[in-house]
Amino acid sequence: MKLSNKSTIGEIVADDFRTAAVFTKYHIDFCCKGYRTIQEVCKKRDIDEIVLIEYIRDAKRNTANQSFDYKTWPVDVIADYLTKTHHRYIEEKGPVILQYLTKLAGVHGPIHPELHEIHTIFSKSFLDLTAHMKREEMVVFPFIIKMKNAQSKGTDLDTPPFLSIENPIATLKEDHETTSERFRRIAALTNNYTPPTESCNTYKVAFAMLEEFEKDLRKHIHLENNTLFPKAIELEKTFEKVL
């Protein structure tokens, strides 16, 4: 759709659910009051129309670049990319999705009781993912970067508290499987993220964001399990000192 200050909030979100995050940031109701135009809400909220429209365009352009050849990247670059891209994505989107699911369960739960289970599963997943990412960022990734630096400088590598990188990796991969299983359950409960035909914009946006979250999570887990972790294990084996 052609975006202008005459475009209505509801039409914009219906055209691309990613823009919902922009309106949420400005506390603009795109569901019950989606009939308002950008011009109207900007005037009422004293928001610069040009700035808001640019944020909306940025949200529409915010798609992951799938052309990267991750296998050619060194481990330290992959670890940094995971932290700044996929980890930040979870930290930013998780609370927003949880907010929508809380609202859905409260409003539509009596008719659609599965929403309560979806909320419970996602809440637990987000909590566990947060702890999982902290372990990666504070323990595993720093050691991977330390190995890469030692390799580049030709220096020795001290034995880590976990003895070998394979030990924490095994735990992280178990976490990945648990998370994947939870999202398989969410997909089943949502009929593969298909909202009821009579659903409101909030319902549609919540399911769409859940689907996007799972897609990003699949890329995230794939990059760790099948690229970063094998590379880290092989890198560790290049050191003469037995860890």
TrEMBL record:
A GO cellular component annotation in the UniProt record: cytoplasm
Pfam families xrefs: Hemerythrin, ScdA_N
Primary localization: cytoplasm
Domain Hemerythrin-like: from-to ranges: 83-232
Keywords, alphabetical: Cytoplasm, Iron, Metal-binding
Domain of life per record: Bacteria
Matches recorded under InterPro entries: Hemerythrin-like, RIC_family, ScdA-like_N_sf
GO MF annotation terms: metal ion binding
Localization per record: Cytoplasm
PANTHER family, per database record: IRON-SULFUR CLUSTER REPAIR PROTEIN YTFE
Name this polypeptide is given: Iron-sulfur cluster repair di-iron protein
Organism of this sequence: Flavobacterium potami
Lineage of producing organism: Bacteria, Pseudomonadati, Bacteroidota, Flavobacteriia, Flavobacteriales
